[in-house]
Fold Damage-control phosphatase ARMT1-like metal-binding domain-containing protein.
Amino acid sequence: MTETLAPEIDSRDPASFPWSVFHRRHPVLIERVATAFPRPAAQRAALDTLLTESTSGVVTAPDVEALRHEPWPWWRPEYRGVPWGETPFLWAESYFYRRILDAVEFYRPGPWRGIDPFGPTKAAELAGDAVDEEMAALDTLAPDETWDALVRSSLWGNRADLSFRAGPSAGSGTGGLIVDESAEFRALLHDRPPGQAHLIADNAGQELLPDLVLLDHLLGAGLATSVVLHVKPHPYYVSDATPADVLATVARLAAADGRARTIGERLGESLRDGRLELRAHEFFCGPLTYHAMPVDLRAQFAQAALTIVKGDLNYRRLVGDRLWHPTAPFAELTAHFPGPLVALRTLKCDVAVGLTEATVETLDATGKPWRTTGEYAVVQTRS
Ligand SMILES: O=P(O)(O)OC[C@H]1O[C@](O)(CO)[C@@H](O)[C@@H]1O
């Protein structure tokens, strides 16, 4: 069934979800980036130009000056002059975010260099009540419910993705788990000798916090000898976690009360002694699927006891950003990935695989969108 590749997703159809990302979410996002700091007029103009180009124009080449300071090896000259919607969605979104960085002079030597355009929103989320509540909840966990609770909050933390606040399709209720291989996930860690566990992070804030707590648990419970946290080397999609976000989150935990503080302090210790290692490979900010992982990164996952793959974008990169039949086998589509893995993902785009026919029928029968709202989630494993 999966021997032939399903069509790659693009954003040309105005009735499609990817089209709404470019035409409904991005205007809100650009406005937020433009106004979060008092930017000079040239940056505002560059952001507006990007929005116009990506919604009603054609792809233009990256800024040469910006490339001198930070290359973008994924530029495709054959897309120059092509309407954005006709290029693959995965590539187009990635290029859009690179162009935001160029518009705000993120790489250009000068006062704006290195200032995260999404920083204010991420900081507000980290400082917010929801994070306080998440941390306070840690004190209420009985030992026998810890594992399930930590997995649940790492999984549903993915739903908090800030890009959802920039769009109309954010669902309010929680649809639930439509593939639940939590038991297999548990077995991969509990029923095998501990080794090095890796986690490919997604968003900062309400997602990264439970991810860090989960990693701390793996170390503390002897389920991993060491853990590696992979984050983006620089800002990428709107709420993606960077090394600075990890440090801010650890500090937030350590400044809290109760169990959160203990965890934050312990995470700090683990960073110092190397049991928790932070890595930030450039590939994570690229528009390619994990089939095209460079050898050095592949080697890292090949020796991992388990890799936890977080979120929607990582999932698209894992199985391929294609209109697969939703019953296409997850194990087959992820066979290319070196080593055992678990995907923790809330569904926020058209890609869905590994479902049963019965589940698909039930979801379709609701008559409501289920692939893109973040209301449904999967825990899928491949050993
Ligand atoms: O933060 P996550 O879970 O990777 O979600 C990001 C998702 O948001 C979008 O950028 C827009 O909704 C999707 O295209 C993308 O897959």
About this structure: The chain has two domains: 17-103, 121-382. The CA atoms of residues 266 and 272 lie 10 Å apart.
